[in-house]
Amino acid sequence: GRIDARHEHFASEVLTDVIHGLRRAESGRERGPIVAFGTLSGERHGLGLQLAALAAARLGVRVRMLGVDLPLDELVAAVKECG
After folding, report:
1. Which residues face 35 on adjacent strands?
2. Which candidate, 59, 66, 69, places its Cα nearest to that of 80?
3. 16 in helix, strand or coil?
4. How far is residue 15 from each of residues 1, 28, 50, 62, measured CA to CA in Å?
5. Strands 62-70 and 34-40, how do they pair?
6. Which pLDDT score is estimated for 19?
7. 10-61 pLDDT, tens digit each
8. Residues 69, 39 contacting (CB under 8 angstroms)
9. Residue 1: is its pLDDT beyond 80?
10. pTM here?
11. Residue 16 region, left (φ>0) first, then alpha (ψ -120 to 50), else beta?
12. Which H or E element spans position 35?
C-alpha cells in the first residue's frame, strides 16, 4: 500500500512515546551541563529533536526540552533561564 500523512504522524507519535520513556529512564543520572532542545518557528517536526535529546541524556547532559516551533526570542529567553 500507500502511506499517508496520518500514518507518518501515528508512527512519529509512537516513536516519540518510546523515546520519552527511554529518556525518563536516564532521569536522575544526568550530571553534566544543561542543554536546551528546541526548534525555531516553522519547524513542526520533533522526532530528530527527541532523538538528539535522548542521545545527550545518555551522555549525562541535563536536558531541557522546549519543543518545536518556538520563536527565536522565546528560545533565547529559555536558554538564558536555563543558565
Report:
1. 63
2. 66
3. helix
4. 21, 22, 9, 21
5. parallel
6. 96
7. 999 999 999 999 999 988 887 899 999 999 999 999 999 999 999 999 999 9
8. yes
9. no
10. 0.86
11. alpha
12. strand 34-40
32-53 exposure pattern, b = at least 16 Cβ within 10 A, e = fewer: eeebbbbbeeeeeebeebbeeb
C-alpha torsion 43→45→51→56, nearest 10: 20
Distance (Å, whole) CA 75 – CA 24: 23
Q: Is 67 left (phi over 0), alpha (psi -120 to 50) or beta?
A: left
Look up residue 7 and give its three cell numbers: 500514518
Q: In this predicted structure, what is the pLDDT of residue 30?
A: 74
DSSP 46: -
Cell 509512537 sits at which residue? 14
Amino acid letter, residue 2: R
